[in-house]
Design a protein that fits this description.
This protein is an alpha/beta fold and about 290 residues long. Strands 1, 2, 3, 4, 5, 6, 7, 8 and 9 form a nine-stranded mixed β-sheet that branches. β1, α1 and β2 form a beta-alpha-beta unit. α1 runs parallel beside α5 and α7 packs across α10. It is elongated. The protein binds nicotinamide-adenine-dinucleotide. The site of nicotinamide-adenine-dinucleotide has 25 residues, from α3, α5 and α10.
Length: about 290
């Protein structure tokens, strides 16, 4: 397929390279990044002019909306526009409406799996949009990832992503505060892990991404809390979940508190630190700091 790939940063760069390595004709667009060996165009209109598919992997919804106008007006009719960025549900739906009105297929397809998943081609895609557009492009998801779940109509992929990451942020905070309290109660961390990871408190954050160094499988905690998944990316997703909660009138008290706590953590030096780095931060605080 002829693919215009727009946004070649930490995630988009390796995803585009994997598509090219699988034999697709990929043309990249990015004002800054230019991955080795990838053919580049100077702008999105040029890259999209005779493309079968355009893929965007951009920082946020405002940038997506700005780029979408150019993509939609340049793509040939019946082409498919896939946005893999994590953006607000409203932007995903607005861009889908614009693309569909121009006769294009449109999928919102945010990812889970991080930079390693992008490089290894093992991402999970959460997809919203028309089933026909997914059928036409499913081969590409097979190259960039290992799983693609069709979640529903336009915006459903973004909805799934922010619900998942709201659970992730809340669960990580719960796991970290329990470890910090267990330390102060004199409980050995290995004993804490052995019990919780096989009891009703188990979770992905405890069992697969344990925030305590030296305990459980290797995780960013064992590498000085270098990301992994940086706290500011978690804060971005928690912010999107709060925007969505406001928009659909959902009561999300735990999500709101997680957003507040990650904001404080970043103000206290958590920028660039893995999101599991809230464990040493909480350990440094006392009961009255809450
Ligand atoms: P990044 O900042 O590394 O890359 C974004 C790229 O977009 C940059 O290279 C930038 O130059 C480019 N860009 C900005 N404006 C542009 C424009 N108008 N036209 C073309 N290119 C433009 O970010 P990233 O880590 O690759 O993340 C991309 C998206 O993926 C974000 O929405 C993020 O939330 C999501 N995401 C990231 C991760 C992760 O672990 N990094 C995990 C899951 C999802």
């Amino acid at each position: 397929m002829k693919i215009a790939f727009i946004g070649l940063g930490n995630m988009g760069g390796p995803m585009a390279v994997n598509l090219a390595a699988a034999g697709h004709d990929v043309i990249g667009v990015d004002p800054v990044a230019s991955p080795d060996g990838l053919t580049m165009a100077t702008n999105a209109a040029e890259a999209c002019a005779d493309a079968d598919v355009a893929i965007t992997m951009l920082p946020n919804g405002a940038i997506l909306r700005a780029v979408a106008g150019e993509v939609v007006s340049a793509l040939p009719k019946d082409a498919v526009f896939i946005d893999c960025s994590t953006v607000d549900v409203d932007s995903a739906r607005a861009v889908a409406e614009q693309a569909n009105a121009a006769g294009l297929g449109m999928l919102d397809a945010p990812v889970s799996g991080g930079i390693k998943g992008a490089a290894d081609g093992t991402l999970t895609f959460m997809i919203g949009g028309n089933a026909d557009a997914l059928e036409t492009t499913k081969e590409l998801f097979g190259v960039m990832g290992q799983k693609a779940v069709h979640c529903g109509a336009a915006g459903a992929g973004q909805a799934a992503k922010i619900c998942n990451n709201m659970i992730l942020g809340v669960t990580m905070l719960g796991t970290c505060e329990a470890f910090a309290m267990a330390d102060k109660l004199g409980l050995d961390r290995q004993a804490m892990f052995d019990v919780v990871s096989t009891s009703s408190g188990y979770s992905w954050t405890m069992n697969a991404y344990c925030p305590a160094p030296g305990v459980g499988p290797a995780s960013p905690a064992d590498n000085d809390y270098k990301p992994g998944f940086a706290a500011e990316l978690m804060l971005k997703d928690l912010g999107l979940s709060q925007d969505a909660a406001g928009g659909c009138d959902a009561d999300t008290p735990m999500g709101r508190l997680a957003h507040e706590l990650y904001t404080k953590f970043i103000e206290d030096g958590g920028q660039g630190v893995d999101f599991s780095g809230v464990l040493p931060w909480l350990s440094s605080r006392g009961h009255s700091d809450t």
